[in-house]
Amino acid sequence: MVRTIGMLIADDASVTQQILTEAAHLSKLPLRLNVTDNGRDCLTLLNGGHIDLAFVDVHMPELSGTEAVWSARKQGIQTFVTLMSTPPAAEAVEVAIKLRAYEFLFKPFGVADALAIVNTYNRITAPTKILVVDDSSAIRQIVQKIVHGSVFNCDIDEAADGEAALTLARITRYDAVFLDCNMPGINGIATMKRFHLVQPSTKIVMISAERSPTTEDAAYDAGACAFLHKPFTSTDVDQVLHAAFGLRSPNLKLKSSEPSFDVAIEGSTIRLAHKSSGHVFEYLWCERPPYLRNVVVRPSAAGAVAPTRVAPAAANAALLQLRAARLLAAA
């Protein structure tokens, strides 16, 4: 039986209500809509325990949106909340982080922006089957704890070596694998290549305590979707899984951990300069997929990291900038 998702729209602006309602209908998810134009009713609905997903305006009559969410959080309500406000204010975003909101939407926003969040909620709360592969039992336990700390609903298996991972791959379907590079027997990259023969669409995140650009380049060339250095955090896991599953990254939690770029959009060209390495990535952007084409990479001789390590983040940053500029629809 399909579970109905309770969605709350709390905003005193009819235009915003219409945008969010349209996004709910376009999602084709089994949503039960609750709409209110004041903070007091918002709090009542949140405390009722039947709201899974909420879009809450910061400024509303009777009770502010932040006060409503704060009161609900004190009651133990863990609703997936997106706060909204105009104009954008750093103070409001800081409050949103303290309230454990998932996202902050700056007005005006469009249906595509709201739809992206609704679809992301659906993917994040769906079961995500994860395999952790590392020859150290202690490291496997640490990685499991970190992955469980992400926003994704993860069900985790573990394997002590490549052969054990490949055995599991033949009987269990995985959404993502966190795979150690250096293991006795079959190493991580060889395991990944064989794993992809069994499950071609599984996202593989390589992990390692060593920092070797050569190894990282080889991992990306072999099909890794990301490379994490030990120790890493739940925020890092959030970042790579959002990118791996093609989800819009929230401004609140992931932006600070993403590599920083200087971005320029000139006509049909978008150019990104990686601030720490100096590598430059240039794309021809298009309104239809694939959105980024004809990539040109200009490596910096002084760069401490290889361009291939930065390239996935550059492409993600380019898409985010194009969507922020409303040149592309939100993912």
Overview of this protein structure:
38% of the residues lie in helices and 24% in strands. The protein has 331 residues and is an alpha/beta fold. The strands form 3 sheets. A 5-stranded parallel sheet has the order 2-1-3-4-5, with helices on both faces. A 5-stranded parallel sheet has the order 7-6-8-9-10, sandwiched between helices. It has helices spanning 14-27, 39-47, 65-74, 90-98, 111-125, 137-148, 162-169, 188-198, 213-222, 234-244, 307-324; strands at 5-10, 31-36, 53-57, 80-85, 103-106, 127-133, 153-159, 176-180, 203-208, 226-229, 261-266, 269-274, 280-285, 292-298. The chain has 11 helices and 14 strands. It has 3 domains: 5-124, Response regulator (Rossmann fold, 3-Layer(aba) Sandwich); 127-244, Response regulator (Rossmann fold); 259-324, no CATH class.
What are the key terms here?
single chain, 331 residues, alpha/beta, Rossmann fold, five-stranded parallel β-sheet
Strand coverage percent? 15-25%
Strand line-up of the largest beta sheet: 2-1-3-4-5
Indicate the CATH topology of the largest domain.
Rossmann fold
For this structure, what is the CATH homologous superfamily of the largest domain? Answer: Response regulator
Q: Number of helical segments?
A: 11
Rounded Rg? 21 Å
Task: Report the CATH C-level class of the largest domain.
Answer: Alpha Beta
Categorize the overall geometry: globular
Number of domains: 3
SSE arrangement, N to C: EHEHEHEHEHEHEHEHEHEHEEEEH
Number of strands: 14
Helicity range: 25-40%
Tell me the structural class. alpha/beta
Q: Ends: how far apart?
A: 28 Å
Q: What low-confidence regions span 5 or more consecutive residues with pLDDT below 50?
A: 254-258
The main sheet comes to: 5 strands, parallel
The CATH architecture of the largest domain is: 3-Layer(aba) Sandwich
